Amino acid sequence: MGKLKEMSLKVVGVTFPNTDGTSRQETISKISLSSDVQLIREPNNEYDPNAIAVFIDNFQVGFLAGEDAQNIAVLMDSGVTFEAVVEQIGVHKGKNWVKILVNEV
Q1: Which pLDDT tens digit goes with each residue over 18-28?
Q2: Alpha-carbon distance 82 to 103, whole Å?
Q3: Architecture of the structural domain at 7-104
Q4: CA-to-CA distance for 28 and 99, rounded, in angstroms?
């Protein structure tokens, strides 16, 4: 099977605040297409054992959606690594959103 390439994924949970008090919406308003993206596995997440947090410029902006996280978490847990870049940034009904492009390394 080939590597997973160019998966365009919407980041979810972008309207919720982070546990440290930082605003995901404020972070998204400041990012650009060249911003650094990190995908962090959270196997001990109380809501979803497959959770994958999305950090941009070292601030959490949300999570991968459930089905996407489930598919990628299995691979991450087996040692597969992924890289991601900001693909799109926008505003809908006054709320910031972001899509990332994910590739298996």
Answers
A1: 999 999 999 99
A2: 6
A3: 2-Layer Sandwich (3.30)
A4: 11
